[in-house]
Amino acid sequence: MRRLLRRAATPLAVCAMVLGTAVPATAAPTAVPDCWLRPAETHRDWTGMNFTGDMWCEVTQGWVRIQSRSTSPVVGWAEYSPRWFVCWKEGSDYLGSNLWYYTQGDRVVASPTVKAWGYMPAVVVKTPQHPMPGLAQCPWSSS
Predict the structure, then answer these.
(1) pTM of the predicted model, to two decimals?
(2) Which of 7, 97, 127, 130 has the most beta carbons within 10 angstroms of its beta carbon?
(3) Can you give the pLDDT at residue 141?
(4) Closest by alpha carbon to 124, among 39, 64, 37?
């Protein structure tokens, strides 16, 4: 029995051998959503503004801009995925969408006092829809 347990490929296979049950060969891992809300998470941006609640999403790495415009100066770089966003707002069109999400980049590129806080275009954020239902609109947003 010990040799069989050492050769077992997965913990599930070990349990199946011990219990004497069959494990389907096509068992697939449970899918994890690309994006979800985390209502209790808190963040404080470079201006001292506090946020409660965020969304945690898969993203394509890219620039973080100080304003929600594609011509706005770059202040940070988002290296890692998934990442969090605290709110959304409308801005300039970027690849067919005018929605942008507010976050903090992983690396400061310019304007160190801003601490890489800024916007990423919605097209790089993998949500079921834009804006993500339940995520707050940025309080300074004019729309």
Answers:
(1) 0.76
(2) 127
(3) 77
(4) 64
